[in-house]
Amino acid sequence: MADSLKRTPLHGACLEAGARLVPFEGWEMPVQFQGLVQEHRAVRERCGVFDISHMGVLRLRGDGAKDALQALVPSDLFRIGPGEATYTVLLNEAGGIRDDLIVYDLGRPQDNEAPASGAATGEGPADELLLIINAGCAEADTAWLRSQLEPTGLVISDRKGDGVLLALQGPEAIARLEALAGVDLGGLPRFAHRSIQLAGTAAAAAAGATAFVARTGYTGEDGVELLLDRFAGGALWAQLLAEGVTPCGLGARDTLRLEAAMHLYGSEMDSATTPLEASLGWLVHLEMPAAFIGREVLERQSAEGVSRRLVGLKLQGRAIARHGYPVLRAGEVVGEVTSGTWSPTLGEAIALAYVPADATRVGTELAVEIRGKAEPAVVVKRPFYRRHGTLAD
After folding, report:
1. Spatial distance between the Cα atoms of 259 and 262, rounded to a whole number of angstroms
2. 325, exposed or middle or buried, with CB in 10 Å at 0-12, 13-18, 19+?
3. CA atoms of 132 and 56, how far apart (whole Å)
4. CA distances from 15 to 22, 163, 228, 368 (A)
5. What is d(CA 102, CA 298) in angstroms, rounded to the nearest whole number?
6. 56-158: which CATH topology?
7. CB of 135 closer than 8 Å to CB of 55
8. Alpha carbon 164 to chain centroid distance?
9. Distance separating alpha carbons of residues 354 and 364, to the nearest angstrom
10. Which of 311, 314, 298, 315 is nearest to 357 (CA)?
11. Fold of the domain built from segment(s) 2-55+162-258
12. Could you tell me what percent of the chain has a pLDDT over 70?
């Protein structure tokens, strides 16, 4: 029921912009505005903005915050420093993926915020991390992180509140934000972040209009994600649209991320799948001495190999593979599609799928069963699309 769904602070503004809304992970979210293909191409060619305020944003605060979180993820968090971020996954005891997330190192900020409930006072600033987590996992992640980390003295709080999270993506995204906000983001590399004043925007009318800006995204394009308060977020959204930036929905977000071969939790990842099976071995840093949940399983898989792995497929015809469709080899079911679409950029059908380890070599010929027919497919290099107009082989 729509009445039971949560709504972002931009719900009304999205409706005014012509959004068609759908249920998504407990939220009522825009699936498209002008049309999926138009929105997809706007991001690839110019600039688009997404309301992603449904996602969870947590703050971890306390001395040794990074050490404590390190016990829950397989990636070396000490490879990043203040002002930097990393993509990683939360693991369970079997090495399965609880959720994927981005960890932002805030250092020891002097932010003048009142201490969160339970925080120590009078001891100066503490280490802080910001986590952006998936909407569908937010409640479970928060409860689990609290059970694991609060006994170590960390304070975990909701950093977003009723604020707004925007994704401004596309080759023009940085220049658009610089022009609107009167800031220079040329020195902000990929996966870096900082806070900026929104001088020159309608959002500047908000008291202390500050945005947390990270050069991250989920589209395969350049761009930023911005965390703002409710008023400033609404004002910035309105100004971006007034300046001709295309509002985009979940439909284009999915086709964009799939062209870039980015994983979706619940499709390419779940609690029964390890990062090595999900072709996320680059997140697993077994060379670091730190113990983390699931390490023994990943060490064993690293030594012995995995029985299945995620691959990219291109279909040879116009049929579109969808989540759950069987993957065939010599007429026998050997795997399953996790995500599939018709690529607006490539003009062909693409998919991600789990297949046996001996069927993962690029060029391997397989098939996908679609409406009772075996449609030819071939294993290809991922990602399907690379930024700056360079397409994957």
Report:
1. 8
2. buried
3. 6
4. 12, 18, 20, 38
5. 21
6. Alpha-Beta Plaits (3.30.70)
7. yes
8. 16
9. 13
10. 311
11. Gyrase A; domain 2 (3.30.1360)
12. 91
pLDDT computed for residue 2 by the predictor: 57
Choose among 322, 169, 192: nearest CA to 257.
169
User: For position 380, what pLDDT does the model report?
Assistant: 98
pTM: 0.92
In residues, how long is the chain?
A: 393
CATH 3.30.1360.120 positions along the chain are: 2-55+162-258
**Which tokens hold the place of 364?**
């391997």
